[in-house]
Amino acid sequence: AQTVTQSQPEMSVQEAETVTLSCTYDTSESDYYLFWYKQPPSRQMILVIRQEAYKQQNATENRFSVNFQKAAKSFSLKISDSQLGDAAMYFCAYRSARLYNNNDMRFGAGTRLTVKP
Amino acid sequence: DAGVTQSPTHLIKTRGQQVTLRCSPKSGHDTVSWYQQALGQGPQFIFQYYEEEERQRGNFPDRFSGHQFPNYSSELNVNALLLGDSALYLCASSSTGQGTRVTEAFFGQGTRLTVV
How far apart, in whole angstroms, are the C-alpha atoms of residue A8 and residue A14? Predict the structure, then answer.
């Protein structure tokens, strides 16, 4: 079974600085997706960025980028120019790319990010 | 576009009671999944519905059941509530494409269930 591990329960960053959140996963599959979701106090899970395992290029979305190391099964999130609105719980998630069995997302335990003004 | 909507937002039930939570998927989505998120933890997959049938199920007891309607909306039912069922219940919708690769799952704001 696939598992996702986030080893940093809490992280803190100064506003405008850069922070990296870590995630590792375990799978025997070769085709899958990885996601970072943000969950602010409003509770709604918001997709930050996604990476398809067959793509070697790391995904980027404005200030958010990932470092995807497939062989090492590592998927870290870098937030540049941190803003107060980035403060939230961040969850790393895995999903198989198999058709008709693809919505069973496995989540890590989360990392609480605090942004200091 | 209303996105994924869940109701109610908060609910308090007594141990042993039954509860029904509701979810309307994002427009154009036909697949609904339910997750349980205990305090301080990541979401855990309960089950997924597609074409009004349960397509996949996580490691949850039979007390957890669901339904999907022809308009793709879904209900999660929990019988014989236990104190440990207290959690945030999240609904996520996506589209099971015609042979296409997976689309993103969009989440609702969740229902906070408290069992006393």
Answer: 17
Residues in chain A: 117
Cβ neighbours of B97 (radius 10 Å): 13
The chain A residue lying nearest B45, using CA atoms, is: A104
What's the pLDDT tens digit per position in A24-81? 999 998 889 999 999 998 888 999 999 999 888 999 999 999 999 999 999 999 999 9
List the single best residue of B48, B96, B102, B104 to mutate versus A (max A Cβ within 10 A): B102
The H helix count followed by the E strand count for chain A is 0, 12
Taking the C-alpha atoms of residue B90 and residue A42, their distance in angstroms, rounded to an integer, is 12
Please calculate the CA angle B74-B78-B81 and round it to the nearest 5 degrees.
155
